[in-house]
Amino acid sequence: MGDWRILIAFASRLGSTREIALAIGEVLRSRGADVDVLPVDEVAQIKGYQAVIVGASIREQAWLPEAKRFVQIHRDALLKRPLVYFAVSGLMSNPTPEHFHEVYEYLSEIRAIAEPLEVGIFAGALDYDRLNHEQMTKVLSKGLPEGDFRRWQDVRAWAEDVADCLQLERARAREG
């Protein structure tokens, strides 16, 4: 991927999404990209990046609001470069096709703002001890189990696919 600069911007409440973003960054770096992994609230502009990956946890059947706001604010710039999304959801602790489809649909509002080339959907980790009373009540009402359900081999395989996709987009841009 050479001299390509890639931004991975993420929104995370309890750290699971951050760790997934870091793992994706490691894969892209291993493929030769210059990668910055930053919380969405710390990104002032995306100028200088040739591709952007945005990821967030799912809460209340939607991406975290700060991730949505990031896409809205940077929409015009995002539409001018390869864009990829990922989502982290407790539903994926039981990775059925129905749950995958449900989480994918949670991203429909974001995809309407700026359509990505790829979407990754991953399970997260849930530690009951890190939740406040309100969060615990919501988690228990949804029947979300405690534990680390991240499948690192799936995250890394997806990141490899994204690297291939971005390389293809880069080649297309050079030809065009």
Describe the structure.
With 176 residues, the chain is an alpha/beta fold. It is 44% helix and 23% strand. The chain has helices at 16-30, 65-73, 75-78, 97-106, 108-113, 133-142, 152-175, and strands spanning 5-11, 34-39, 51-59, 62-63, 83-89, 118-123, 125-126, 147-148. The strands form 2 sheets. Strands 1, 2, 3, 4, 5 and 6 form a 6-stranded mixed beta sheet that branches. α1 links the parallel β1 (5-11) and β2 (34-39). The longest helix is centred in the C-terminal third of the chain and has 24 residues, at 152-175. The radius of gyration is 16 Å and the shape is globular. The two termini are 18 Å apart. The relative contact order is 0.18. The mean pLDDT is 91.
What are the salient characteristics of this protein?
176 residues; 8 strands; 6-stranded mixed beta sheet; two-stranded antiparallel ribbon; single chain; 7 helices; alpha/beta
What's the topology here?
Blueprint: E1 5-11, H1 16-30, E2 34-39, E3 51-59, E4 62-63, H2 65-73, H3 75-78, E5 83-89, H4 97-106, H5 108-113, E6 118-123, E7 125-126, H6 133-142, E8 147-148, H7 152-175
Parallel strand pairs: 1-2, 1-3, 3-5, 5-6
Antiparallel strand pairs: 3-4, 7-8
Helix pairs in contact: 1-7
